[in-house]
Amino acid sequence: PQTIYLKDYTPPAWLVEDVHLTFRLAPRATRVTSRVRFVPNPEATAREFFLHGEELKLISCHIDGRSVTPEVTPEGLTCDVPDGPFTWEAEVEISPETNTALEGLYMSSGMYCTQCEAESFRKITYYPDRPDVMAPFTVRIESDLPVMLSNGNPVAQGQGWAEWHDPWKKPSYLFALVAGNLVNHPDSFTTMSGREVELNIWVRPGDLHKCAFGMEALKKSMKWDEEVYGREYDLDIFNIVAVDDFNMGAMENKGLNIFNSSAVLASPETSTDANFERIEAIIAHEYFHNWTGNRITCRDWFQLCLKEGLTVYRDSQFTSDMRSAPVKRISDVIDLRARQFPEDQGPLSHPVRPESFQEINNFYTATVYEKGAEVIGMLKRLVGDEAYARALDLYFERHDGDAATIEDWLKVFEDVTDRDLTQFKRWYSQSGTPRLKVTEEWTPADASRPPSRDLAANPEAPDQVRGGTGTYTLTFEQHTPPTPGQRDKAPQVLPIAVGLLTPNGDEVVPTTLLEMTEAKQSFSFDGLTRKPVPSLLRGFSAPVVLEREASREERLFLLAHDTDSFTRWEASRDLARASMLGALTDPSKGPDRTWLEALRGVVRDTELDPAYRALLLALPGENEMAQTLHERGITPDPEAIHSTRQAHLQARAELWQANLPILAEEVAVTAPYRPDAEQSGKRALGAAVLDMQSRIDWGKTAARQFETADNMTQQLSALACLIRYDAKNSARYIRDFYDQWKDDRLVIDKWFMLQVSEATPDRAAEAAEGLTQHPDFDLKNPNRFRATLGALAMNHAGFHRADGAGYALLADWLIRLDTLNPQTTARMCSVFQAWRRYDADRQALIRSNLERIAAKPDLSRDVAEMVGRILA
Ligand code: B3K
Ligand code: ZN
């Protein structure tokens, strides 16, 4: 397979002035005719005429009305063309019904839909399928189906046809078409300049009652983007469609967002609080793309983070504003560590802006998305909120209608702030997670020196530090281990937010941003009377691994007193990690009781947000512990991690036994179900309490909750506890749940997933294998596949079972799926990325399974690239 390099970018030879498409829909023989007006690109160096096209049956083609015979290859076609502007017309035939890859035009439960990003428009017709070719589209759809949608505004419709026109020029990856027997949940939105926009969520008839929440989320997103970024919507209509078979969450096609039904449909009875929050965030994310992605798109796919990093950053700001900012930040860091850190520290590590690829779909990664968003957060921290706002205004003004680059993006910040961002740009080109070592030094009060004026003059400074002459110095050393293709790393710009606390808990130095640019750098604080306690990397101000072994006393102090909610949570996390590490390295050691006592105090503090307390309670997961051990040069033993973690949870439940009823009562929700932050937080804490109670009463309380819950959040958390702690009856509850929900695909996905993710390590592979034999298992549906085989990989100890049963089962199914759906298969291969963490026996087992996948005849380019990189 061919490798594409960023450095080889050349501008397109031909630009497109406008596009007319006609679709005559038929399941196995859809005819697509295109009429495209090409003009020479004055900026191009070559004139070669090449159109992408894959898996197309070419019926005819014409240039300026004359029939031509192009040279066709599996990748596209070339043709002799005039020197000046001309009109290209082509007719092709495609087969949506047999398209199981879910890329291009395909069918899902009787409806037609499309997915073109990144490079699948070429499976619909011949076209320059690259994001720097932008054009207005007019689309005519012909079919018997009642609803026919495309991008832009509706122009006209009649019996059996509909026409759409999108006046905004766009790249082909934003093209979309939907046709089906659909019903809509309608609404409207009046934009800041007073324009009325029609809004619709289109679903299959049985799903109409699951649209209201998504619609509210859409309206909130539209309003928020006006208020916070000054961005107004720009068409008369905005459509969202829910599709059951979809490779990812959703897609931001201009004016016609297509969603995995799991990312838009919700009702209290069938969706959890986490589902609601995710739906709100994805709807916002896709909507925000209208400006960051669609109006300003990417010059080429190497610039993917330009739209994805920024849009993730924007949707996280939105969620922080709609819900709780500290809770959102902590959840994002948990996610970053779970998904991005292992990626950045393993064989798949790549820069936020990759420099080469074989299959671009393999680069829709946590690094491009989540680290890409972290980079924007750092930039904002460094320049300040006000300069960030001005830079964004300039970005929208300067680049509206452009296919832009990271250079363009950074330039607006340089122009607005006069900063030189050359070094900062390393965040885009250098892969790997920086390690940050910290040492501290305290120079006590020196009587011969006059007291520090700054602090003495500061009326906010606590009394006991006034007049001090002591100096506290923090020395940081940054180091990024080598990553594939990048041996030597240069120092990065690290914004390090620190606060200093006095031993009685007052903040003597409020949050201050230190700007580290050297490999080793010191920062001093003077005018102090006593050695302060540092609160480091507040808000997780840079995506690094902090290497500092603080004492247990210091961590306990921060857990009790830190004024920054992130570092306070981090102290609790560090204590949990230290306790588990202690038990793992010395089996005679049990859980750290002092920590558990201290944590109990904080968790009982009713002044604190229940959602935040739930986060304080959550122990690092088994995968995170494996990663932590690996970072410390210890080979993780999955079984030992599992049993140690369980022992911790058990000890805590027993220790806190007397407090559980009171906690449960405190978080009980009596008001009607609402999926908002307040109620969800209480239910999250409630679920943690229920887990502890279930360890003690063997599922008695959980059974009651399972029977009486009026919402999926509580029904599912109860079922999880019953599977975990009531081995005798769990089969019955699992059956009851199935009987209750067998007609709801999204709930049955949960049912599949829970049985695998909650299975004991010795049973997980069998549970997954058994479910693949269930009549409702559907290899072609990515949600169901992930719910079954993806869930196995999430069951850390089950997946890594020493006999290799987990690896073999997953590899078997990946080999089967590759023939049908390369993209989902390739994505799932990443569960093997951390294989070198483990012992030699497990490594050998994983290697042989990866080699088995690699040896599959006709292996897709997607999977070949992934397995090749993982094994390299
Ligand atoms: N832009 C799409 C992702 C497309 C993935 C293609 N393999 C969804 C999003 O990020 O909003
Ligand atoms: Zn996106």
From TrEMBL:
Residues 213-427 form the Peptidase M1 membrane alanine aminopeptidase domain. GO terms for molecular function: alanyl aminopeptidase activity; metallopeptidase activity; zinc ion binding. Its EC number is 3.4.11.2. Pfam families: DUF3458, DUF3458_C, Peptidase_M1, Peptidase_M1_N. It catalyses: Release of an N-terminal amino acid, Xaa-|-Yaa- from a peptide, amide or arylamide. Xaa is preferably Ala, but may be most amino acids including Pro (slow action). When a terminal hydrophobic residue is followed by a prolyl residue, the two may be released as an intact Xaa-Pro dipeptide. This is Aminopeptidase N. GO terms for biological process: proteolysis. Residues 468-548 form the Peptidase M1 alanyl aminopeptidase Ig-like fold domain. InterPro entries: Aminopeptidase_N-like_N (IPR045357), Aminopeptidase_N-like_N_sf (IPR042097), PepN_Ig-like_sf (IPR038438), Peptidase_M1 (IPR001930), Peptidase_M1_dom (IPR014782), Peptidase_M1_pepN (IPR012779), Peptidase_M1_pepN_C (IPR024601), Peptidase_M1_pepN_C_sf (IPR037144). It comes from the Bacteria. Keywords: Aminopeptidase, Hydrolase, Metal-binding, Metalloprotease, Protease, Zinc. It comes from Primorskyibacter sedentarius. It is an enzyme of class 3 (hydrolase). Residues 553-872 form the Peptidase M1 alanyl aminopeptidase C-terminal domain. Signal peptide: none annotated. Residues 21-174 form the Aminopeptidase N-like N-terminal domain. Its cofactor is Zn(2+). Belongs to the peptidase M1 family.
